[in-house]
């Protein structure tokens, strides 16, 4: 009986660890190549605002962080830096700076989702024509699947 219990527990544990590693590794394995330095530079030059993602935000932790420079323009948002890898990242603009899940959820109805973040080292996201970045002051990376705050930067 002890042997069967040990086998069940060990298999469940190995399965859980494998699942967790898969959640972390799969986005890295399927991520497209980041934009070229030339693309980043061209779009950065068109930016009107800039900000910094920092690792030490209240809602960031060892597995959920970002650091680097973000440039916000009328047509695109450019990030030069690194994000902790994860699934289903979305880019939002917010009228207020937030740095926790609770603050994000409280203000979510006043935010606008700009698009998907598919790379973890540098990204370029097109701003839809219907979105005016001047109406907001903060850019946020959010994991939609797990309702997890990743990082934020005030840009004006």
TrEMBL record:
InterPro entries registered for this protein in UniProt: DM13_domain (IPR019545)
A family per Pfam: DM13
Domain of life: Bacteria
Domain DM13: 51-156
Protein's UniProt name: DM13 domain-containing protein
Organism of this sequence: Halomonas flagellata
């Amino acid at each position: 009986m002890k042997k069967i219990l040990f086998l069940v527990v060990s298999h469940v544990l190995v399965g859980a660890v494998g699942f967790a590693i898969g959640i972390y590794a799969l986005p890295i394995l399927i991520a497209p190549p980041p934009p070229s330095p030339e693309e980043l530079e061209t779009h950065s030059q068109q930016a009107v605002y800039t900000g910094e993602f920092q690792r030490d935000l209240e809602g960031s932790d060892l597995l959920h962080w970002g650091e680097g420079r973000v440039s916000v323009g009328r047509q695109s948002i450019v990030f030069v830096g690194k994000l902790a890898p994860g699934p289903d990242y979305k880019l939002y603009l917010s009228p207020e700076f937030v740095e926790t899940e609770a603050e994000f959820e409280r203000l979510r109805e006043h935010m606008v989702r700009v698009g998907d973040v598919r790379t973890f080292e540098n990204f370029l996201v097109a701003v839809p024509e219907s979105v005016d970045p001047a109406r907001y002051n903060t850019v946020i990376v959010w994991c939609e699947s797990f309702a997890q705050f990743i990082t934020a930067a005030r840009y004006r």
